[in-house]
Amino acid sequence: MSSKDAPTIALVGAGAMGGALVRGWIEAVRKGGGLTLTVVEPNFDPVLERELDAVGAVLNPPEAGPVDVLVLAVKPQAFAEAAKSAKQFVGEQTCVLSIMAGVTIDNLSRALGSPRVVRAMPNTPARIGRGITAYVASPACSEYDKQLVEQLLMPLGTVESINAERLMDVVTAVSGSGPAYVFLLAEVLAVAAEQEGLDRETAIRLANRTVAGAGALMLETGDSANTLRKQVMSPGGTTEAALDILAAPDGLAPLLRRAVAAAAKRSRDLGRG
Ligand SMILES: NC(=O)c1ccc[n+]([C@@H]2O[C@H](COP(=O)([O-])OP(=O)(O)OC[C@H]3O[C@@H](n4cnc5c(N)ncnc54)[C@H](OP(=O)(O)O)[C@@H]3O)[C@@H](O)[C@H]2O)c1
């Protein structure tokens, strides 16, 4: 086990999400951050493998001992298999950080034999460091565990702490699945543009850049969605004509309310299953 200045980290699964995490950690090590990395992954991206080698990370060790933080980033269906070998990284002081969707703190704790568990839910923009990750920590986690976990999640984007595990179903339904709702918005906006007469390619370009640009504007100005929406509108104008439909009692709000409720229910059901 390490000193607290140079925590030892083992990552199991360096795919899309695990890869994004470990690239951020490599950057931290290059800047002089004290991290000792071990990574277990059956199919390394060759570039990532070289970068890990260059910072002295240990890759696929035949055997290993306990680390400060064990990070699990395999698909949930691979968890049972991965847990068998991941157990070697777990000692009395190990904190387990899982980004696997739907795997509960209780299951993680039982499979890995540690009461110190953090369950986190990132979303796909995490792959470019622009995601939001919400996490919940088991009561056995110390303040230091939580600080360390927050630092480790930062390469994925913003990190948010949630105080009850049941709320992870809501997080899953809002930010976890949410990028798909926004991509659907871009898709249906393009279809509407085509139906109004634009050619398909132009329609897609206009819709995609509108969604991407609006998101970037919100992020970069820090202004609320409500403020930015009102800036587009003028009384009796074109935006108002559209919003009379979208913001009507049977418009977007009740539709999204139902969609989020359905996703949260599915998350609860999968968790029970
Ligand atoms: N992508 C998202 O938007 C998103 C959002 C929220 C949460 N998550 C969660 O993040 C986790 C990872 O998702 P992902 O998209 O990064 O998946 P992914 O790209 O498939 O990455 C998982 C990696 O783990 C490897 N792996 C499989 N079994 C292993 C084992 N026993 N030991 C070590 N490595 C093993 C896989 O190798 P092979 O390819 O050879 O199997 C793969 O490279 C999932 O649990 C998912 O629920 C993802």
Structure characterization notes:
It is a single chain. With 273 residues, the protein is α/β, with parallel strands linked by helices. The protein folds into 2 domains: 8-163, NAD(P)-binding Rossmann-like Domain (Rossmann fold); 176-272, ProC C-terminal domain-like fold, CATH 1.10.3730.10. It is 51% helix and 14% strand. It has an 8-stranded mixed sheet. Helix 6 crosses helix 11. The longest helix has 22 residues, at 200-221. The protein starts with 7 loop residues before the first strand and ends with a helix. The mean pLDDT is 94. NADP nicotinamide-adenine-dinucleotide phosphate binds at residues 12-13, 15-18, 40-43, 73-76, 78, 81-82, 99-101, 121-124, 176.
Keywords, separated by commas or semicolons:
2 domains, Rossmann fold, single chain, binds NADP nicotinamide-adenine-dinucleotide phosphate, ProC C-terminal domain-like fold, elongated, alpha/beta
Summarize the SSE layout with pairings.
Blueprint lengths: L7 E5 L3 H15 L5 E5 L5 H9 L3 E2 L9 E4 L6 H8 L8 E4 L6 H8 L4 E5 L9 E7 L5 H11 L3 E5 L6 H9 L1 H18 L4 H22 L3 H8 L5 H9 L5 H21 L1
Parallel strand pairs: 1-2, 1-4, 2-3, 4-5, 5-6, 7-8
Antiparallel strand pairs: 6-7
Helix pairs in contact: 6-11, 7-8
The structure holds NADP nicotinamide-adenine-dinucleotide phosphate.
The site of NADP nicotinamide-adenine-dinucleotide phosphate (NAP) has 25 residues, from helix 1 and helix 3.
Would you kindly provide a brief summary of this structure?
This protein has helices at 16-30, 46-54, 79-86, 105-112, 143-153, 168-176, 178-195, 200-221, 225-232, 238-246, 252-272; strands at 8-12, 36-40, 58-59, 69-72, 95-98, 117-121, 131-137, 157-161.
